[in-house]
Amino acid sequence: MNKQSGIHYLREHREAASSKPVPAEVSRIRETVVAGLGDLLQGAFDAVDDSLFELANNARSNNEQNRYFEAMREIRIKRKGVERHFQNAVAQLFATPPHAGKLHDESQSQQAASADSLSLVGNDDLEEQVALNAMITKAKAHFQGPLLQLQTRFSQVCPEATEESPVNPMAPEHLCSAFTESIQVLEIQIRERLILLKQFDRYVVSNLGMLLDEANRILIQAGVIPNFRYHGKTGQQHAGSSGSASEQAGQETQTHSRTERVAADSSAVLEQIHQLLALQRANAGIPPRMSDPNVQIVGDRELLNLLSALPTATPSNPGQNLSEGEPVAIDLSAVVEQVLAQVDTREGKKPALDEMDEDLINLVSMLFEFILDDYNLSPPVQVLISRLQIPILKVVIKDKSFFSKSTHPARRLLNSLARAGIGWSKSDDKGRDKLYEKIHSIVQRILEEFDGDISLFETLNADFEQFLAKENRKASLVEQRTRESERGRIKSQKAQETVDRILREKLQRYRLPETVHSILTNGWSRVMFLAYLRDDVEHRWQETVKVVDDLIWCLHPHQEDAERDQWVRVVPGLLKTLRAGLEEVSYNASRLDDMMGSLKHELAEAFRNSQSGGEIQEEPAPAEPPEAEETTSDTSQTEDAAIAEYVAQIDAMEIGGWVEFRLVNGASFRCKLSAIIDEADSFVFVNRMGLKVIEKTRVELAHEMRRGRLTLLEQGALIDRALDAVVGSLRSKTA
């Protein structure tokens, strides 16, 4: 193994570790990270097992196949030990955090110490080190912002850290070194080791983002530099961890400015809606409320106290499921009128709200009208969200920034619920679905516990985001395996179809001896199949097709001297290539010599102008009547024109987009576009768990959309889409 990788430093650092207690927040992060990395590593090992199994199936020789199977056996036997060792190593990084970049920098300095040092490193170790360095560099570039934030915060809570020497237990170089140390026990060769590192990069290192975000969130909740934000460009380097006070102030100013811009945009939308509603009142001849002497304006606090006494909109049966039945829009204006009737006014004045409060209530009503008509929401989630009309009304009266702040806790929670529920299908079993149970419990808690304290929404949203991160992590691993499996299956299917088509076309033109026909269809077809699959690396596909053409040419009688001279030059190499290819695919060894002997005999007979040589069969396909051909062409053109606009919509679909399919029997299901496999013009869709549910071509999807059986779902933030719809509706009414 490579001695330059920093493994010895990590081991010595642990042995020198003290028993100082770990801060509580660091301990919490350690538990989360160790568990999360353990789950990701399981996915990586599963992918390694699949890769080795596929390589063994496609091996060129028995020795190569046995090598892959032995590697599979070795990894399966020692896998649990490696996983346990890696998790312990990661846990130790939090107990005694190494200084950020020390492992990687030390490794580089050791390699640069002497020009002769490279000669002491074996090719295998050097290849592994290159793979590790590439993995670490890519991760640092991709997660630059979260890594810098986390390093700054860890350096605040770890006493041994200094401004010149910060710490970060989750730095990619430390995690990669912990993994390379853990796989020392595996007795596998460099190719299998590189496969293991590749899957570790794909499943573990590439998914560090969610763990880095969770670690930052925990430290923010603990009050560790809560306002720190990273605004650097990709590849930008920052000197030090926390920087000077002026740098931090500049970063905080940028964050504050960006927040102000977002708030200004939202406030502009709210002001626009207020003006449109005021214009409606003016067109209807309604005088300004404040100028009416017979009206007593009810303040926000008094109105909120009246609304607090309202019962929540729960089903009549306490044990009934909240998502049962149909979503029902509540007339919030009538509700407010009822509570205003309870106000004790002086001098017989009529209680009323000021125009801003009235506009906000109308806006909440229009908001839920949109939600209850929004087809993008799955029906159960739509019903659950409809239960929140009274609580959201209370939120808006208490805190008017609900519409002007995109980061408002209640607004964020509604957006999260809608986004998470987009993949729900009517056929899903609500009684056993964790996501449904979670959304149901959140709505239930709001209905039962909300007493005007907005922090409840913040708590519920944080808990829900953590739940979603865990569920999405599991689904993404399953989806990754599904996607890779489908790509392999479709590529294999296309390879087999291509080989069968080419051989069928070529063999139909000639009357070949049975021996030759058997070699091509039962043996050489396997060589062509593997060559097609590996063509992007080995580029042998055209060579295997040429072998078929050369063999058929050699079996045909040739009278010209030049052709006979060419025959003499081609046949020896052709026979050698045929034998080598058939041996590579483990063709029946006991029959190979007999088959090759028979082939030589047939070639010799063809050379002597024997009639056993292949002759072209003139069997033209019966021509279709001109009328039928024209009719078919016209029909095809008409059909292409009819689906052209739908094909454009299909081409605009993005990976990760959700759609709904409706079956002929009226049932429907929702799924997500997981992969577009161009070689087979195949669109692969998966469900919320990452499992494949359907696969169709571009044209098939266009036809489904034309028939009304495929709908593209919008995934934008629910409240933002609702506000846009409200503005559009108000503009049309006041035009």
TrEMBL record:
Pfam families named in the record: DUF1631 (PF07793)
Name under which the protein is recorded: Thymidine phosphorylase
Superkingdom: Bacteria
InterPro entries: DUF1631
Region of interest (Disordered), residue spans: 1-23, 233-263, 609-638
Biased composition (Low complexity): 235-252
